[in-house]
Amino acid sequence: MTREEARAIAYGDRETIIEVLLQLSGAVDLLTEKVAELERKIALLTRDSSNSSKPPSSDSPASKPAIRRPKKSRHRKPGGQPGHKGTNRDLVPTEKVDLIQEVLPESCEICHKPFHPSVDGSRVLGNYLRCQVIEIPEIKPNITEYKLRCVECSCGAVTWADVPPQARSGLGPRLAALLAYLTAMHRVTRRGCQELAKTLFGIDISLGSVCKLHEEVSQALEPCCEEIKQALPKQEVLNVDETGWKSMGKGIWLWVFVAPAMTFFTLAASRGAKVLKGVLGEVFGGIICSDMFSAYNAYHKGTRQICWAHIIRTLRGLKHACRSPDGVRFAKWMLSEIGRMFSLWHAFNDGHVDRQSLVKKSVPIRARMNRCLQAYELSTDPDVARAARGLLKHWNHLFTFLDHQGVEPTNNSAERGIRPAVQWRKICFGNQSEKGEVLTARLLTVTRTCIVQRKNTFDFLVQSIRAHREGLGHPSLVSLSR
To answer: Block means of pLDDT (10 residues each) for the chain, length 482 residues?
Structure first.
């Protein structure tokens, strides 16, 4: 529109002016909606693990803001700083050393005269310094051959000896345990296991044999994993989480159940409450720590603890989106109160505050949080209103950690437990069979439980395979958690 056209409208009849104003108002409304939609899309594109439910492994290094060094460390060089107490590897006791070699100096450091202790009168003193070199020996597998003899009975019948149980596989339990350990702990593929066996041990093993050994390991771990599963309903506190998984080209769900001394994994096609019922029974009598996912709400009607880390990320997401003034004010108010609550919690963990004082001092903080939620549950911003109503709905499950021993305000133990599985998922094609799903769940269950109990994972796998082959009682991981 030119100036002349605008002047003609301004000094024209009123109906023309009204029509133009209505058109402009409609255009402004349309553009406002488009701007809000674009801002929402930009906020979604710039989300990371700090302001959403996305895992930290999904964060791009390029998207993270540059970390500014504090002024005190601006001119420091990389590495250990002056005054830093270094850490050194302890020397192995002499009685455990395989070979001792004495090293004499070749010449005097003053006159440079060569040393010949038995000729020139120089003598070797009793004091000495120790240094050690640790090396692995050349790896050569031990091969045991069983000669199956035949015996002719007096009746004339000839009977051949059976293959011993420990020899039927053709590959020993330590090799089977090692390949399973590499798969579970270091996410080595089946072909990678085949290559390592050939390169490091000189064992020419087929890809099918690797798969058969993994299947045998799965069978060997079945009693132990079933025992852990049966012990879960008896736990007082459980942290539960779930994440996506891939199997036979379809999306399924990997569930993790974390108790103080054990971790249990299971793969299921469902993300619903029926998985919880299948693992924990129809009713769980303990405390479940989780996020606000609907499956937990539908299953557990008892005491719960909602993860505050998820709440914090949701609030940061509202603040990050900046869709409305309510979103920013609501997020700032809640985050400040949560900060005070966590400061109090850390003081309790450090022993500066007892539990009675913890509960008492949290009362005004909880009151201010409740006022904030009530003030914004009818906000014009739908995201703010939804967040406020959700927290009010779960209000009785937000502060369980204040009154119950062993309950944390976050679900970090379950998220830490499931993180190795997420890393495994990102570099593999998932499972290709139901047996593969079972193997994955059992390997994760045993390895993570051994780590929690500070047991040697490889030794436990060897014991389980030997017990399975020889028909002995399986080693247990439940005894320490009772």
So the answer is: 76 79 87 80 66 60 57 67 79 90 87 81 84 88 90 91 85 93 92 93 91 94 95 94 91 94 94 94 93 91 92 88 83 94 94 93 95 92 91 94 93 92 88 92 95 94 93 83 42
Residue 107 CA to residue 118 CA, distance in Å, equals 14
Is-above-0.85 flag for pTM? Answer: no
DSSP conformational letter for 380: S
Contacts of 418 (CB under 8 A, 6+ apart): 241, 242, 243, 254, 256
Which residues does 480 contact at the CB level (< 8 Å), separation at least 6? 261, 453
What 190-198 contacts at long range (C-beta under 8 Å, 24+ apart), as own/partner pairs, is 190/214
Please give the full DSSP string across 227-270, using - where no structure is assigned: HHHHHGGG-SEEEEEEEEEEETTEEEEEEEEEETTEEEEEEES-
* Amino acid 83: pLDDT: 77
Which residues have CB under 8 Å from 226's CB, separation 6+?
A: none
- Match 């590897």 to its residue by tokens: 89
Domain range annotation of the chain: 237-413
The answer to whether 297 touches 283, Cβ cutoff 8 Å, is no
Which residues make Cβ contacts (< 8 Å) with residue 160, sequence separation at least 6?
148, 149, 150
- Please provide the DSSP assignment of 328-377 as one string: HHHHHHHHHHHHHHHHHHHHHHTTSS-HHHHHHHHHHHHHHHHHHHHHHT
Distance of CA 313 to the CA centre of its chain: 18
Q: Give the residue among 43, 8, 82 at the shortest CA–CA distance from 324.
A: 43
DSSP secondary structure letter of residue 171:
S
User: What's the residue count for the chain?
Assistant: 482
For residue 137, count other CB atoms closer than 10 A to its CB: 6
At 281, list the tokens: 């029974």
State the CB neighbour count (10 A cutoff) for residue 359.
16
Tokens 């090692």 identify what position? 178
The structure tokens listed for 202 are 């000189």
In whole angstroms, give the CA distance from residue 166 to residue 466.
Answer: 8
Sheet holding 237-247, edge to edge: 262-268, 250-259, 237-247, 287-290, 304-306
